[in-house]
Amino acid sequence: MLRRLHPVLIAALLGGLWSHPLRAQDARFGVTVPLTIAGQLLRTERAQAIESDARVWRPAFRLTAYPSLKLGDHWYFYSALQWSEEPYSFYEAYYPEAEFESRLVQAFLGYQRSGERQAFSFKVGQLTSAFGAIPLRYDEAANPLLDQPLGYGSLLNIRPDALPCGVKDLPNLRVYTEYVGVHFYCGGPETMTYGMPVVDLYGLPGAEANLSFRNFDARFQLTNSSPANPQSLASASQHVQWTAGGGWTLWQGFRIGVSAMRGPFMEDTVLDRLPVGKTVRDYPASALGADLQWARGRWSVSSEWYRARFPYPRLIVPPTVNSVYGEVKVILTPRLFAALRNSWQLYNRVEDNKGRSPLPFQPNIHSYEFAIGYRPNRWQILKVGYEWLHGGGVSGSRDNVLGIQFVTSLDSISKAIR
């Protein structure tokens, strides 16, 4: 047990000792390396659905570094690198195995120019998806709770590298927490996978342009693959995907936004089993979403909805998910805050030429998450939270999660070049 806690203790110790960041210097050229260090302890019985003797206490840590270069008045390089002990997120707590992972979240070259009431920027490289609002909040210091909304922290029981024969292949009778994997039988590998996200929170290669004018903002992104199935530049299954979004700030503290994306999500392993003359480009995934943010005084509110659709051959009505969450945060004292989030995932009944499925292709789920946060200083946050999960055919408290998280942000470690 002491060996397992060791990374968490290191993260907490670093956060306690290194709580006074160095002052940044104002320069045209320079290097900055902000850090976010998080130690976490979860208490949940989720992994016991797979291994009955799995531990209920799950310690973990995550270190995220944000190296960046200022390359003059307009050019810059930005990156985000992450090292973590898994399982870290609440959804990953279903898996009993522990492992260490390193990820390149972002790494891009950017150009920006701004005026009095307008701004333009362009970036190319490894980018987070421009769809939705949550991908910009993967840092624990920016998230008032411990978990992510269900729409960004759970998997769909479908796969991009194989084809279903019809409704009967969809795992519509499976319990949400079962560790059974997804099998399709009409083309593609026979290996098992555990589903796919709607939008992966980690980056993918692409280019993006951003424009703001007065109270309006817009963004357009082209990537080499779908955010639901990111591919590397060496992959044989790269297909151009577009994502667009924008927002209107009606008044200070209140903004509404929209976003959309469209492009192939299946891999080329299924090409030989598609109908004659068809390619994966003939079956593009699509999603449409809306979000809002409001803040006034001690209160802030955010909410988001999206609808995503994943077509396959042989399915007249394809798998579709509607996701929505609402989040409220209140500052109780200068050092203490509370936050609450409700999330819903609603799945449809798929249909082929033999009829419609009797149930959604996976069970609908609903979660409540509540957290209290305390700031001992402006660089650190201690959060204690609890999540209730409903649906999926599971009763009782086995899927609930108690979490404790300590976050330290070092936001101004820098070195001026000139």
Please provide a written account of the structure.
36% of the residues are buried. Residues 1-25 and 173-178 have low confidence and may be disordered. Strand 8 (204-213) and strand 9 form a beta hairpin. A 16-stranded antiparallel β-barrel has the order 2-3-5-6-7-8-9-10-11-12-13-14-15-18-19-20. The protein has a two-stranded antiparallel sheet with strand order 16-17. It has one domain: Beta Barrel (Porin), CATH 2.40.160. It contains two helices and 21 strands. The longest helix is centred in the first third of the chain and has 16 residues, at 2-17. The protein is globular and about 65 Å long. It has 418 residues and is mainly β. The protein starts with a helix and ends with a strand.
Would you kindly provide a brief summary of this structure?
This protein has 418 residues and is mostly beta strands. Helices cover 5% and strands 47% of the residues. The chain is built from two helices and 21 strands.
Helix content: under 10%
Overall pLDDT confidence: 87
Which structural class should the secondary elements be placed in? mainly beta
Q: How many structural domains?
A: 1
- CATH top level is Mainly Beta
> Which H/E pattern describes the elements?
HEEEEEEEHEEEEEEEEEEEEEE
CATH domain fold name: Porin
What ranges have pLDDT less than 50 throughout 5 or more consecutive residues? 1-25, 173-178
Largest beta-sheet details: 16 strands, antiparallel, barrel
Identify the overall geometry.
Answer: globular
User: How do the strands line up in the largest sheet?
Assistant: 2-3-5-6-7-8-9-10-11-12-13-14-15-18-19-20
Strand-residue fraction?
Answer: over 45%
**Rg from alpha-carbon coordinates:** 22 Å
Q: How does CATH name the architecture?
A: Beta Barrel
